[in-house]
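Notes from the 1:1 (GR / supervisor)

We went over the backlog. Supervisor wanted to see one worked example end to end before approving the batch request, so GR pasted a single chain during the call. The sequence is below; no edits were made to it. Supervisor asked that the structure be written out right there so they could see what the output format looks like.
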Amino acid sequence: HDLLEGVEHCYAPVALGWAEGPSALAELEASGALDAPLAARLREAREAYAAAGLAPRLAIDEVRSEVLCLDTDLGWSGSTAHVLYEATERFWVERADGAPAGLAEAEAKPRRYYFTFRGKWESFRHYVAWVRDMRERRAGAAPDEDNGAAGADGDGAGADGLDKFPITWVLTDVNLVVETAATPKPAGGK
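Structure output shown during the call:
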């Protein structure tokens, strides 16, 4: 799970960012945490509420996450992580102009969300140095001064290999909305 740093806690910032509106989604996209096609789909869904003069609201009571799958390609150029979030949350809609909408706040309900992340590796050498340092730290030993970490070679690992996390994760899909939209329909199919 050490390699999945951040993905287990991603649900709340994304969900609350969506409910907050376009500027919050733009911040997530600009930070590199949210892939552009997914950001576009989330903006579309959010804009549908705004076009109707409504504002979605979300309150999250509890979130649990479970990593379902972590897959790395053979060339170590990237990885994919699939994480299931179980959130107990309240979702309701208000009028955007602040006038009473006559819509009461919903009761808390458990919901499930399937997030897909794409990871980009710094380098295999950086990863090996990082793993070595993690093992040494867990064993209570100080990492070697020169443990073969890639810092001297410009990989950004530094002497202890932990200056930079070995993989950067980007959220690419939620509940397969991007993948489903990109899947071509069979010829002659409806």
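Supervisor's comment: The radius of gyration is 21 Å.
Batch request approved.
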